[in-house]
Design goal:
Blueprint: H1 20-31, H2 40-46, H3 50-60, H4 73-88, E1 99-109, E2 114-119, E3 122-126, E4 132-134, E5 141-149, E6 155-156, E7 161-162, E8 173-177, H5 201-210, E9 215-219, E10 249-251, E11 261-264, H6 266-273, H7 276-289, E12 295-306, E13 308-322, E14 333-339, H8 360-380, E15 387-393, H9 396-399, H10 401-408, E16 417-423, E17 433-437, H11 443-451, E18 459-463, H12 472-476, E19 482-486, H13 505-524
Parallel strand pairs: 5-8, 8-9, 9-11, 14-15, 14-16, 16-19, 17-18
Antiparallel strand pairs: 1-10, 1-13, 2-3, 2-12, 4-11, 5-12, 6-7, 13-15, 17-19
Length: 528
């Protein structure tokens, strides 16, 4: 699970373990067809094995794979293993392959990065690092244009707020504040003190690009923050202490789709707004009224040049398909996913120190759950109405890379994707506790999972989607209903001692059974 997550710990559940076989026996009559033959759900459930789950886990979380970093040889070995399991379970490839190939870019800062502002009779040039620092998503390009102040750079119709309303920014250099209005106001329309996606620089960049901006200059908002030093990205070339290989990695993006993006400091702010105090009062006016104060910055033009050097790398999602009864690849589907990557290993560690982050719970456990769902689908002996697509995602720890890539290049149209079920960290804490996370709009998925929980016997807790950041979010942000199954945080999270010996593989098998039954029910539902 990505370390950018905000967590809600699961309170331990006490009491005896409920034996899944006992519950299955109680519910068996309702799962048997009228003719007396076992239903696909029963056959599939019988195909899940805690013993086999342990074998999968011991391989995926072994030192042999060196922590499954993205990209790495260890991750590639895990991908080949997952593909073999999918194939052996009888799942089909997609477009003749069990792999969805993904290009990645490692970005280094280039040699030429400049910022120049021009007013009548005056040209002022600013210094890299002291006055501005490029962000990691910046373009390799030079642009010139007039400057426009666009408040917080937000266009949020659901909050009744739009800094770009009536503002023409096409071909211009847009200047915006970080964060969002009312950042320290618990009554703010932007969910109080809890930041929304609109506070993220990446979201501000996307909105600016959609409106034709040529470049984006980002300022730390002075009303709520005292340190106004430009940070941008922590480029190794601008530091004496950062390792030279600590470079940002992104999904491959054509440079034509990027714009220059800078974090600017006080000297540039003073030049544009007269003083930091003037900017602070402008921000105060926006926050107090919740009304934008955007404008063209008169008599100022600028030139922004950022340069980068790109190294191309490769990774892959692993996919396995159980077609629906109609067999139409463009029909409806249920997606079941788990990320199979982790964070690798620590370099130059002492010989007597464990340096490999095995990621047994995060997220070999969810990956093993996915492999057991594959076994259940293969054992079901028939097909549901909709297709069921299993995806092991790469690059979750880097920023949901694999799921983002799939959502941008789906095998089934997202509007025909009935739901996405995501398993991430499902093998620790109390044997009978499990957290279900979904947005309010997707509460029907919670109800279905509760109804299908009988044979698994979990004590289920409910949380809002914001309680966990994982691959389901690449789908829910695009309108696909999502359900995230998670067994809770623990002290071994993102540490070398998250190892296979601490994992409850019987719990993994029970989660896999719950996910299989929920996915099958959704795949048989008449709702697209």
């Amino acid at each position: 699970m990505t370390s950018r997550t905000m967590w809600v710990p699961v309170r331990p559940f006490l009491g005896k373990r409920v034996t899944p076989l006992f519950l299955l026996a109680l519910l068996l009559p309702s799962l048997i067809s009228c003719g007396g033959a076992a239903s696909p759900v029963v056959r599939g459930s019988e195909g899940i094995s805690a013993g086999r789950a342990a074998d999968h886990l011991n391989y995926l979380a072994s030192d042999l794979l060196l922590g499954r970093n993205t990209p790495s040889a260890g991750l590639d070995s895990a991908a080949a293993y997952i593909a073999r399991v999918f194939r052996n379970a009888g799942l089909q490839p997609v477009d003749d392959s069990y792999f969805q190939n993904i290009l990645l870019h490692t970005v280094a800062l280039g040699d030429t990065n400049t910022l120049e502002l021009r007013t009548p009779g005056r040209i002022e040039r600013f210094a890299l690092k002291d006055d501005f620092v490029p962000f990691d998503m910046t373009a390799n390009r030079s642009v010139s244009g007039d400057l426009v102040f666009a408040g917080y750079g937000i266009a949020a119709p659901e909050f009744g707020y739009d800094d770009y309303a009536g503002l023409d920014v096409k071909g211009k250099i847009v200047v915006v504040l970080r964060h969002e209005p009312g950042e320290e106001d618990s009554a703010s329309a932007f969910t109080g003190r809890k930041n929304t996606d609109y506070a993220n620089v990446a979201t501000k960049v996307r909105i600016a690009k959609e409106r034709g901006a040529a470049a984006l200059l980002v300022m730390t908002d002075p009303l709520n923050h005292t340190s106004l030093t430009p940070r941008g990205f922590a480029w190794p070339s601008l530091s004496r202490t950062i390792p030279q290989d600590a470079l940002p990695m992104t999904l491959a993006v054509e440079d034509s789709a990027k714009i220059p993006v800078l974090h600017i400091g006080t000297r540039v702010m003073n030049r544009l707004f007269g003083s930091v105090d003037s900017l602070r009062e402008l921000q105060r006016s926006i926050d107090s009224s919740m009304r934008p104060r955007s404008f063209l910055i008169n008599n100022v033009a600028g030139t922004v040049r950022t340069s980068t050097a790109i190294t191309v790398q490769h990774t892959q999602n692993v996919v396995g398909l159980l077609p629906g009864r109609g067999g139409d690849s463009l029909g409806s589907a249920v997606v079941v996913g788990a990320h199979y990557d982790h964070v690798g290993y620590k370099k130059n560690s002492p010989a007597d120190q464990d340096s490999i982050f095995n990621g047994a719970d995060d997220n070999a456990s969810g990956t093993v759950g996915l492999l057991e769902v594959a076994a259940a689908l293969g054992a079901a002996g028939s097909r549901p109405a909709k297709a069921v697509l299993l995806i092991a995602f790469a690059g979750e720890e880097k920023g949901l890379f694999g799921s983002q890539y799939y959502a941008q290049h789906p095998f089934f149209p997202l509007e025909r994707t009935a739901a996405m079920l995501n398993m991430d960290m499902i093998g620790r804490n109390s044997p009978d506790s499990l957290l279900l996370i979904a947005e309010d709009r997707d509460s029907s998925l919670i109800l279905i999972a509760r109804e299908e929980n009988g044979p698994s016997g979990f004590i289920l807790a409910r949380s809002h989607l914001d309680a966990g950041g994982s691959d389901h979010m690449s789908f829910t942000r695009r309108g696909v209903p999502g359900l995230f199954l998670h067994s809770g945080l623990h002290t071994d999270y993102h540490r070398p001692w998250d190892e296979a010996a601490l994992i409850d593989t019987e719990k993994i098998a029970r989660v896999a059974g719950l996910v299989f039954r929920t996915a099958w029910r959704l795949a048989e539902s008449p709702v697209p």
